[in-house]
Description:
Blueprint: E1 9-13, H1 18-29, E2 33-38, H2 41-51, E3 57-60, H3 66-80, E4 85-88, H4 104-132, E5 135-139, H5 143-146, H6 152-172, E6 178-184, H7 190-198, H8 202-212, H9 222-232, E7 243-246
The structure holds nicotinamide-adenine-dinucleotide (NAD).
Nicotinamide-adenine-dinucleotide binds near residues 40, 187, 190, 191 and 192.
Amino acid sequence: MQGELADKVIFLTGGGQGIGRECAIAYARAGASVVIADINLEAAQATLSNDLGGAGLAVQCDVASSASVQAAIQQTLAHYGRLDAIHNNAAISGPSKPLHETTDAQWDQLFAINVKSIYHTTLHGIDALKASCGCILSTASMVGELGQENHAAYVATKGALIALTKAMALDYAPFGIRVNALSPAAVWTPLLRQWVQDQPDPSATEDFLNHIHVLGFCPEGDVVADVAVFLLSERARFITGVTLPVSGGAELGYRRSGTK
Ligand SMILES: NC(=O)c1ccc[n+]([C@@H]2O[C@H](COP(=O)([O-])OP(=O)(O)OC[C@H]3O[C@@H](n4cnc5c(N)ncnc54)[C@H](O)[C@@H]3O)[C@@H](O)[C@H]2O)c1
């Protein structure tokens, strides 16, 4: 297979929809074999058959469960015999609340799916990545660096992910494993559409999202997928420990209110 990711086997979590689905498409187009690991098997299978022409693997996997991740990675290794990259992309974003209104169970669920998942994929995938001198990539969020009102626990998970990326980059560099993250601001996906619906004024929030990016619009997931391909490719061979913004400049400077 030709392409920047030719012959690479990529284990991608949350590839059933949204940014993960776009990454699955971009990875396959770049020549990789993609394992779409999603809690929603039907969605993973739909990505595989509708978008990847059936090439690759769809596996049911709950990233919050160590046993489930272990089984999915074992399935990957049994099928392909190697593993070149893990992309930790699956996450949930709710609840959209300040910290004191977040329940104990909501806090634990957010951290299990958004952060402990990275522990699970690393624990079960690291030996295979050492063998391939592979890569770990995680989908962070600009809110993990900037903060966001009314979304405290989710913001904390993304901050933790960014810190983990640096620590893991240090620990795994001696094995030739690069560890990076990418950081979108907002991207139109089912997750974002749900978050918009949870806001007090969804229509004003949608308008706001279209205007926070200096480049002038809220993008679809393809912009993130292109950067993900780059970070997993040889062209990024000297980049590690980085959280790369894919944010249309949303985090830049003071802006006049109402500026488009
Ligand atoms: N959409 C945005 O605006 C935005 C912005 C910044 C960061 N992000 C991040 O991008 C990533 C993808 O977000 P999205 O908007 O595409 O989300 P999405 O909700 O549209 O898709 C998430 C996918 O993850 C899967 N998933 C959920 N829980 C899972 C679990 N326990 N185990 C395995 N799979 C599970 C879902 O089934 C779904 O297929 C997330 O890490 C999110 O935090 C999104």
